[in-house]
Write a structure and sequence with these properties.
Blueprint (H helix, E strand, L loop, with lengths): L5 H17 L3 E5 L5 E5 L5 E5 L21 E5 L2 E9 L5 E10 L4 E13 L10 E3 L13 E2 L13 E5 L8 E6 L1
Parallel strand pairs: 1-3
Antiparallel strand pairs: 2-3, 2-4, 5-6, 6-7, 8-9, 10-11
Length: 180
Amino acid sequence: MPGESSFTGEVIGKLEAFTASCGKASIHFFGHTHGYSRGQSRDHKHLWVNVATAGGNIDYWGEFANADYPEFNVSQDEYGFVLVSSEAGDDPSFTLKRFTMGDEFLPKNNELVDEIKVKNNTYPTSTPEPIFPVNDTINENCLTLKASAFIDPGLVHQASHWQISKGCNFVDSLVTDEWL
């Protein structure tokens, strides 16, 4: 995409390596586009936050060339700001809150529109179980996946990593590998 650089990927890679080696959650902020986006690395406790914009022109979705990356869960083309608070101790965490001021067509008064808490410690979750397909013959080009609910007290589901294989080997017989 115009304006993107491989340097960003290098920075993210270093932050993911930090998270993996230190066992600490991490976050990075950027502001290339004039809007707000929040996402995370798939295999690391690393949050990505485009904190823009508090001023200037908003990059309305579809106005310019856009890409929808799987790492991002939230994108908002509105003015606003983020507030991050952290908590130390036996159960360290940080909480990010996004407040919107709306846009030029629909002003808002510092409304909370996004919030996420990232905990450093890992807690057991109820991992979704596959419902369909399970040992079924399927058409890999036309498939609807079904799974049980994600249950994790105190946390909100952000994304799912789906893999479909023709057998038990998810390396050599992988049909689909999606992160949504």
